[in-house]
Amino acid sequence: LLLLLLLMGMVIPTLHSLSQAPARLLPCSLLPIIICRCHSNGGLHFSFGFPPVAGGGFSGVSLRPGRRCSGFSPKPQHSAPRFCGWSVRLLIATCSFHSGSASVASAASSSSSIVSHVCEAATTRQRQSSEILRIREALLSRERSALEITEEYLSRLRDIEPHIKSFLFVSEVALKEAEELDRKIAGKEELGPLAGVPVGVKDNLCTHDMPSTGGSKILEGYRPPFDAAAVRKLREAGAVLIGKTNLDEFGMGSSTESSAFQVTCNPWDVARVPGGSSGGSAAAVAARQCACALGSDTGGSIRQPASFCGVVGLKPSYGRISRFGLMAFASSLDVVGCLCTSVMDAAIVLEVIAGHDSLDATSSSKEVSQYAATLIPVDAMKSRPLDGLRIGLVKETIGGGIDTAVSSAVAAAANHLEGLGASISEVSLPSFSLGLPAYYILASSEASSNLARYDGIRYGPRVCANDLISMYMNTRAHGFGAEVKRRSLMGTYALSAGFYDAFYKRAQQVRTLIQDDFKSALKDNNLLISPAAPTVAYYIGEKVNDPLSMYAGDIATVNVNLAGLPSLVVPCGFGSGFSEHLPVGLQFIGNAFGEEDLLQVGHIFEQTLQCSSFVPPVLKCTSCA
After folding, report:
1. CA–CA dist 515, 421 (Å, integer)
2. Which of 61, 381, 470, 617 is the most interior residue, by most CB within 10 Å?
3. What is the DSSP code string of 159-204?
């Protein structure tokens, strides 16, 4: 240890001086790399190694304090061997040189995953910063142009897209939009709050200049003549729409595997799903292919992918954002929302796209708050910024059916909130277990009605036949996937004459009970918390032939949609064991139109979380983040 400390004293100044030299003068193979990290237990963690001559990674050892001297012996893959009280862990990290600076980005405990503790590999002291504000500052200071920023994101998108397949269509006019924005900046015109920000749009939101397929073959090649209300507001705010993201067909699915075009992979482990139905948007944001993305949430379609991909996901109150231009799945449950890398970015996007719309009778006329302005900078926070806040932990979401790794991460997050001054208590929602069956009856019933419009007459391709009925049947049989057919059949059955009272009407009564339970719980608590999903991301194909198991994955989210409440998911940690490199999301639930409170608490939680940098392995280097 003393030798390592001595070596550090010699090497670090050398690295600092060399970092000022051009990149071509810094051969990776000649530079030893030492990483020193402080841990919450007060100890130090040293990593030391040399990069191989031929590659961009380096190999070495990692030393961290152990509890006892147990000798050096081989251990299982996810347990580091110990030597005299110090654990020794093999490292594989990426060393890249950009603009004359060295950047070590990620570390891994095995070649099967690029990192095992991504939080440790990223800078643990670094706060989760706003990508939108960073872009705006670069534009206003003329440090970078909108064209340069857009080109950077498009380049990263092209590099990473073959691995994760998050986009169905990439904009052909994004660079022209960026050039037009640069002309406005040169002319000193006023900039919108999202000026120059590359944004992805879920493909069930209409865009006049890009195909809008809803992830279904029945709309293949369809280009609507208008923009969805949320998309229009993004354009007016100066955003550069970079493309349309993949989704489960018409939003029906929890893994993005039911897309008619491709299966999206999770940037944390490309063998796993990114969640759904907004899996394409979540994966694109996690992989920094876009700064933020729009999604839709009918029963958890923003929040579950946010948890799986380690990003922030915001599902606003029903009616907070116009649904005009959103392809209808279940009209009484559908909500437009966003996925971002920080709570600040979610607040900025919400402020832009929220508000009443005369084209949507269900949109609320409630005043839109200045959400971003209410978020406290980390330097201005008190030592206990949540003093006096009452938070209820939903009892039904931490028991059976929830993975131990997820429960542990949520328990640690609850302890962190307590450390910030909040009072945490368990609350019970008696009707909670009834939410899942009620949701699938109501959502499927509404879907069977909404999807009747796709008949081959108005939209998309048509399968020719000798008579009208045969044309309808053949077009829908060819155009719809298995999951859409399954839910349409379920919904039609629930609405049929002999079963309406037994299924649909009873499900609506259960919905009222759920709303009452939430109202009661939120009388005694300012907010509620729960896991966003019962598991970490599972393997592609693991549940595709078991729809009931996949439906059960929505247990923590569907009740919020049935009650019409807002919800925010913030990454809170990682799994354990074989899932130790996979993120876990914490769900905050608030009163109707209480997004301001959610964002304030979520921001404080995010900024004070010790391990707050969630950078997926697919990026390969922190400079990409």
Report:
1. 28
2. 617
3. HHHHHH--EEEE-SSHHHHHHHHHHHHHTTPPPPTTTT-EEEEETT
| Whether the model pTM is above 0.85 | no
Q: How far apart are the first and last CA of the chain?
A: 32
Contact 295, 331 (CB under 8 A): no
Mean pLDDT, rounded, of the chain: 83
User: Mean pLDDT, to the nearest integer, of 400-414?
Assistant: 93
CA–CA distances in Å: residue 52 to residues 7, 8, 46, 55, 617: 20, 20, 19, 6, 19
Q: Determine contact, residues 553/387, Cβ cutoff 8 Å.
A: no
Distance of CA 72 to the CA centre of its chain: 40
pLDDT, tens digit, for every residue of 311-348?
999 999 999 999 999 999 999 999 999 999 999 999 99
* pLDDT top residue among 82 and 213: 213
Q: Which helix (H) or strand (E) holds 414?
A: helix 404-419
Phi then psi dihedrals of residue 18, to 5 deg: -65, -30
Rounded-to-integer distance, Cα 470 and Cα 492, Å: 19
**Cα 99 to chain center, whole Å?**
30
The continuous run of DSSP H or E covering 378 comes out as none
Out of 4-8, 309-313, 539-543, pick the least confident: 4-8
Give the Cα separation of 63 and 45 in Å (integer): 6
Q: For residue 223, give the DSSP letter.
A: -
Distance CA 293, CA 440 (A): 26
Q: 163-195 in b/e burial notation, b at 16+ Cβ within 10 A? A: ebbbbbbbbeebeebbeebbeebeeeeebbbbb
Q: DSSP assignment, residue 110?
A: B
Q: CA–CA separation, 75 vs 243, rounded Å?
A: 46
DSSP H helix total and E strand total for the chain: 17, 17
Q: Is the pLDDT of residue 366 over 50?
A: yes
Of 328, 355, 150, nearest in space to 243 by CA:
150
Q: How far apart are CA 425 and CA 395, in angstroms?
A: 9
> 148: number of CA atoms within 13 Å, CB side?
8
**How many Cβ atoms are within 10 Å of 458's Cβ, its own excluded?**
9
Write b or e for each residue in 46-82: b if 16 or more Cβ atoms lie within 10 A of its Cβ, otherwise e. Answer: bbbbebeeeeebbebbbbbebeeeeeeeeeeeeebbb
Residue 267 near residue 619 (C-beta atoms within 8 A): yes
Cβ partners under 8 Å of residue 445, min gap 6: 491, 494, 495, 503, 504, 507
Task: Tell me the C-alpha distance between 281 and 266, whole Å.
Answer: 11
Tokens of 317: 């109150």
